[in-house]
Write a structure and sequence with these properties.
The complex is a heterodimer of chains A (about 325) and B (about 100). With about 325 residues, chain A is α+β, with helices and mostly antiparallel strands. Chain A folds into 2 domains: about 120 residues, no CATH class; about 200 residues, Phosphoenolpyruvate Carboxykinase, domain 3. In chain A, about 35% of the residues lie in helices and about 25% in strands. Chain A contains 10 helices and 17 strands. In chain B, the strands form 2 sheets. In chain B, strands 5-1-6 form a 3-stranded antiparallel β-sheet. Chain B has a 3-stranded antiparallel β-sheet with strand order 2-3-4. In chain B, a hairpin with a 4-residue loop joins β2 and β3. The longest helix of chain B has 16 residues. Chain B starts with a helix and ends with a strand. In chain B, about 20% of the residues are buried. Classes of the chains: A alpha+beta (about 325), B alpha+beta (about 100).
Chain lengths: ~325, ~100
Amino acid sequence: MADLKIKDLPSNIAHRYLSKGRFLSGFGVNIFRSSPDLNIEIGPFKVAVSIDYPAVREEFLKLYAPYSCSIGEEIMDSRLHVHASSFLRRFVRKNVTVSHGYKNNFYPLRAEVGAVATEMGFNWSVAMGCRHLLLLHAGVIEKKGMVVIMPGASGSGKSTLSAGLGFHGWRLFSDEFGLVDLSTHQLLPYPRPVSLKNKSIEVMRELLGSRGVFSQNYYDTPKGTMAYLQPPEDSILRHKEPAKARKIIFPQYIPDEPATKIALTKTLGFLKLIHSSVNFGIIGEKAFKATEAIIDECDIFAITYPSMEEGMRLVNEIMDNDEKSDDLLKTAGERDE
Amino acid sequence: MVFNQKNDLNWIKGNIWLSPDAVSFLWVVYDDAWIIFDKRSGCSHIFNDFSRGIFSYFEEKPMGFFDLLKAVKKDMGKDFSNSLEDKILETIQVFDQKGIVSPL
């Protein structure tokens, strides 16, 4: 069967699948359920999505246009429903919240920032529901089969840097989650739209110009002004191609300071990596072994950078040095033979 | 429960300390440290060579502080200094806080 993309669906059909006619969903009742689920597949996750607000659906269909989807009941990893917190709040002082089958402590947002709620809901459902993969809070990129993991707290610049590199010669695995297979210890791609905040929105708009597919700007969200950027199409199409980690880089954006790069010990790298994990403690032994395997394979660095250009230069430099040392080893091997 | 430092250390001195079965732990060794994963708690801890050395005594058999001190003195010979006594006591205290050893 041909791979169905969201963009292949006629707009009115896509809206109908996404809306599901959940007119009374605020009461937990799904009446007028006239259409099957719209399931979106990204990396290892398949999620059934339904969105009550037309404007939020429109933004979703734009950002997710190149993604694989399927129609109808299948085995899903989770179900994401974006809706008003009550029947009344669909019409009066409209708000939006997200249900995903896990304990719902999602704080309702204004309906105008419904796309932000949708993306946060996606993140939340992965963070809460994923127990079969080690989950790292990290940007992840790949080139020539070698993955760079860039763990970082919110505000470290990992999303922007990952996105910048994703549009300049690298494949973007994710700007938010490093997913580690617990058996093979490979990184799995999860290329969802890149979450951009505040200054990084303008940085990326300037960097990409008309090449980038951006959402509108969402103001006064819990994280300030936000916008979303569709990942490069190649990254989306190759969402089933895992790769091995080769470098771990802890990035930190520091404006008005010179760029720095230092190598870290394996011990420090190990500890920083498990601290960046969302579910290390829950998974336990297998997560420890996966972390050990990754650290064994990787060189570890911490970088600070004052601009996108400098950040990209440092990451490329680290990878180029690795390729050069590989070439030297190969040359030495050939000489020995 | 909150102990004051003095009572806490006396409590450490007065007990026999036991490490759980070795299968409860996973170890990773790097150039500068040992990382131990406690399967029971899901927590990871870093040991330097000194704390790893002290812990190895508990892996062999349950021990009280004074027996441990005697064993360390014997193994270190002339290299043992009295300042190590406090260090050993503090190390056991940390082991206890982390749940890596427990009183018998």
